[in-house]
Amino acid sequence: MLNTFLFSALTSKMLPTDYVGFTFFVGCMAMMAASAFFFLSLNQFDRKWRTSVLVSGLITFVAAVHYYYMRDYWAAFQESPTFFRYVDWIITVPMMCLEFYLILKVAGAKQSLLWKMIFYSVVMLVTGYIGEAVYPGSAALWGFISGAAYFLIVYEIYFGEASKLAKAAGGNVLAAHKILCWFVLVGWAIYPLGYMMGTTGWYNSFIPAGNIDVAYNIADAINKIGFGLVIYSLAVKSQQD
After folding, report:
1. Which residue intervals of 12-160 are DSSP H helices?
2. Band of the pLDDT at 7, cuts 50, 70, 90?
3. Residue 220 to residue 176: CA distance in whole angstroms
4. Using an 8 Å Cβ cutoff, are 143 and 203 in contact?
């Protein structure tokens, strides 16, 4: 099976109209370029912000590596690489939650906030994978649990402890926190919508099924690179103050 996959990946040809394959390739290159940018800029920051920028680079680097494999999988089989996508998310989404904690440490954020957000993100992703790939016949149930975990993250950053800490920090931290919140509320919303479009169950009664990979690819690049650029901008402004 592995030899078949490698051979197919090397010999498959993408058609000019293969927008899924095209966005996989562009997403891979964009996130690799973003990783190089974040890593090469580390020396301009002091230790206080270096970790945050490093995590931004790691998020896009991990995504770029997975996109390389997802692109080859799509080229070989013309199937959505669900497994590789969830492996990517299970690593990068908790790291994006880590970014909230890192910028809020200046206001006294405790590790309990970090672990709570990581827990919500893991529940969101694990139950999403179960509903989409393991038990698609129960997609509605698992999707409801996954969606609930997503809204708990949204609640935490808009109204919970994270929001209170951001207001206490004020200034550039509060401004960056607000932008990251919009990324989660608007940018991350494509993932539960994509889940509903790609699985069977009560979802199909009001959302048509369809190929969501192009939207996923664009959303991944915007969300992950955008997260990193917000952190980078915050670090630059904080060093200038």
Report:
1. 19-40, 47-77, 82-104, 111-129, 139-158
2. very low
3. 19
4. yes
Handedness of CA 154, 156, 159, 162 (dihedral sign): negative
From residue 17, alpha-carbon distances to 23, 29, 30, 33, 41 in Å are 11, 19, 20, 25, 37
Q: How far is CA 34 from the centre of its chain?
A: 14
What is the structure's pLDDT at 5? 44
DSSP for residue 12? -
Q: What is the chain's mean pLDDT, rounded?
A: 89
What's the whole-number mean pLDDT along residues 50-57?
96
Q: What's the pTM?
A: 0.90
Q: Which of 82, 22, 21, 63 is nearest to 224 (CA)?
A: 63
Query: Among 67, 98, 30, which residue's Cα sits nearest to residue 216?
Result: 67
Neighbours of 238 (CB within 10 A): 19
Reference 220, options 112, 57, 85; nearest CA is 85
Alpha-carbon distance of 73 to 176, in angstroms, equals 36
Which is nearest to 227 in space by CA: 16, 7, 58? 58
